[in-house]
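Sorry to interrupt, but I need a hand with the structure work. Could you add the entry underneath, on a fresh line?
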Amino acid sequence: MGQDVDHKRRTEIGAINGYIVKEAEKLGLPIEVLDEKKIKKMKMGALWAVGQGSEAPPRVIVVRYEPAGAPPTPVIGLV
């Protein structure tokens, strides 16, 4: 039973990640998906450590929205 929950959760996470990527691509927004290798390479140790306790591998999805006329200083939004 626990395995079914874990498998279902991995499937849900994969579906959400796929949806985000698909929607960003439809809107023409630049997107980058950081997988385990990139997370390690970027030395995101805390994220990697937390991901070790999950059945689903860690991912970071970066979607950039850079409209014309945006201020020259970076604006960061975290969700």
